[in-house]
Amino acid sequence: MSSIIDKKMNAKTRSFEKTRQTLNVTGLRVTNQRALIMDIIRQGDEHLDADEVYRRARAKQPRLSLSTVYRTLQALKKVGLVEEVHIDETRHYYEIKPPTEHHHLVCLECGRVVEFQYPLARLIKRKVIEAKDFEITGSEIRMTGYCPSCRQKRK
Amino acid sequence: MSSIIDKKMNAKTRSFEKTRQTLNVTGLRVTNQRALIMDIIRQGDEHLDADEVYRRARAKQPRLSLSTVYRTLQALKKVGLVEEVHIDETRHYYEIKPPTEHHHLVCLECGRVVEFQYPLARLIKRKVIEAKDFEITGSEIRMTGYCPSCRQKRK
DNA sequence: TACTAGATGCAAATGAGTAGCATTATTGAT
DNA sequence: ATCAATAATGCTACTCATTTGCATCTAGTA
Ligand SMILES: [Mn+2]
Ligand SMILES: [Mn+2]
Ligand SMILES: [Zn+2]
Ligand SMILES: [Zn+2]
User: pTM higher than 0.85, yes or no?
Assistant: First the structure.
């Protein structure tokens, strides 16, 4: 049998199985649709919205419903495996909960989203508790501007 | 005639006229509905959403339509008189463009929004251009946590 | 005062996300 | 392996903030 196909299948299967393991410890039931959705987010390079997840998932499981995608995204968010990002105002995007703090830069010209790895949460948390006696548990920074390649074109 | 009523009327009229002046220099046509909406946002202490603006405006101009509120908010945003804040995911809120940078703290318990006056934009802008060659033109920080009074209750 | 582009009001449309409910699948116990 | 309990799924219908089309109106200008 073709070793190329075997390798592809195995890579996919491995990833999927790893995802099932991850899900298993959350208390959530491990369903095929959840494993698939989680896997798609894990493998997806970009930030995906519900509809994009849906489109990609249907390629594998045509009977999967959009409701399930929405419910799964909520569930994964709740158990802390996935994070919701508010890059634009019209819809929510999702990414695997990252190990280190990062924030998002959105290019106003081309829409590209760039990640900015920098720890601001600590600083902010401290400043806020000093000034306002307000205890911060989460913060999100969204920055807009122009990416390197669009800056060139504008000049 | 009652001087109290006169003073009230005059205060309102003065505010409204000042708003008309402000609008006049923007290139936008100065309509009663725009002046009223702008005035409501200016006088409103809190952050107002479209529907709240609509409710308050109808008290003065019952024929005003919700569409006009939405269109006006967009117009005021575009000319830089008003700023859109993304405090929650379900709707947009509006405030007069503040002269100094501030960000918003949202209490997860009671929903109260507290403003945090602190200049982070400069720092962020610099760090980002260094690290990513990305030119930042706007940034918004949304922080969630617990306000002083809700922190008490939780203990 | 008359002209005209821009603004308004109303009604209908859009679109992301949610909810109800009958059916199905996972899990943990026998 | 079988079963019961109950969580999850797939539909469909719904909600609700925001947008759009279009006929009518009005602010700004000559
Ligand atoms: Mn990211
Ligand atoms: Mn504010
Ligand atoms: Zn760009
Ligand atoms: Zn509170």
Answer: yes
